[in-house]
Amino acid sequence: MVKELFDDKVAIHLVDYGHSMTIKNIQLRSITPKLLKLPFQAVCCWLAGVEPVGSEWSSEALLWFQTLVDGQPLNARVLAVTEQGYGVELVSRGQNMAAALIAEQLAKTKGEPAKERHVHLESTMKQGDSFQTSKHTEAVSREMPREIQTAVASDVACFPVDWKTVELPLNESFQPCVAAVISPSLFYLLSPTQVDQQKLQEVITGLAAYCSTYNATLTAGMESRPAAGAACCAQFS
């Protein structure tokens, strides 16, 4: 997602991992609406009810939280929905993460939350096994070059701003998978029951084929100066 434009660089939000970086204009490409039909699969969350003891989370708190949630069986329940994402309750092996952080004196109880409201949220699409798709790219290009070329020709310089994300159930317990952890205030969850693996794989292979097939999108796309909040294809290695 495009965040900000500079003279020869672009600040982007990487939907694979939930963090931001700045890249050169030549590493940015437009994207076709077809590749955005599947909603982004991972959503932005924070641990409800807690905040850092100081102005920022301590390194000890970050390590403690990441260790307990990364790759561990979790139960989650959405308690709040705001513009910033989903406020969730996380339980690991019967241990409430918020209560445990407070007990370890790594966090403090958060004050009264702001008024909640339901909105479409910025989210991420899990990269998952995208590294495995490179071997499929050539085959996809051979099988449907005309389709790709037609799509590219009709969608050059397309930076849609109406992308969608999956939505997590409110006040219902579910078992999430962790896509990325930045801190207790920022992490990304997937709801496995909502992930369509086949469609996700089609998007990943289609995206790889699209970017490798039509290099001309690069120049034409940047001439349109995409707006902040628009979806795009951005090189990342």
TrEMBL record:
It comes from the Eukaryota. Residues 4-49 form the Tudor domain. InterPro entries: SNase_OB-fold_sf (IPR035437), Tudor (IPR002999), Tudor_domain_containing (IPR050621). It holds the Pfam family TUDOR. This is Tudor domain-containing protein.
